[in-house]
Amino acid sequence: EITAEQLEEIRKELFYGYQHRWHDHKSERTRFILKSRQIGATYYFAWEAFEDAIITGDNQIFLSASR
């Protein structure tokens, strides 16, 4: 079984400082992010959905589109 502590350790190794700041504001209803291309936003938010699914047991749906 994967624990929240294990997920936190993995997250610390995988992500950059600015992505950690996104995580710090995870509980806020709205997050505004002015982003450029290829900064790992899709990867980070997919991780966040995965993390939520593991911790809560809730199903997650994640859609990503590009042109």
UniProtKB/TrEMBL annotation:
Pfam families: Terminase_6N. InterPro entries: P-loop_NTPase. Gene3D superfamilies: P-loop containing nucleotide triphosphate hydrolases. It comes from the Bacteria. This is Terminase family protein. The lineage of its organism: Bacteria, Pseudomonadati, Pseudomonadota, Gammaproteobacteria, Cellvibrionales.
